[in-house]
Amino acid sequence: MNDLVEILVPIACGCVLPIMIIWLTVRQKMNETNQRSQILLAAIEKNPDMDIEELIKKMSPKKKLLKEKLLSKLQTGNITTLLGIGFLACAIYMDYQGGMSSKDLRMFYLAGAILLCVGIGFLISYFMGKKMLAKEIEAEQNKLTEQA
After folding, report:
1. Which of 48, 66, 94, 146 sits at 20 to 30 Å (Cα–Cα) from 22?
2. 49-75: per-residue pLDDT in tens?
């Protein structure tokens, strides 16, 4: 029974979980699109003289600004880096205390290292993006202030 669990858990986490996540996000986007189209059709039926382009612009989801995208990378990088450091610190402490099996301890080290590397990758992406997109962000800010 233990062998079966050791086989099924990685398969579930590696195959089934990503497929379910993708299916749920695609389904959510399809439902949002269907709801928007139903609202548009109802608005056209009630008032055929309405400016459809303006209504579509108002109903479409707002795109994130470059600054918002960069800040979300910074936030994700900080969180995953701190989680990686926490896992590594916990693994070092447990290794020092000697209260955990070596297999479980290796998993803690591995999880900490992976999280730390992913977090550092997000932070590098943030700082490089900030440096490379400085002019575009400034132009975007100027455009927003002109509109307001």
Report:
1. 66
2. 777 777 777 777 777 888 888 999 999
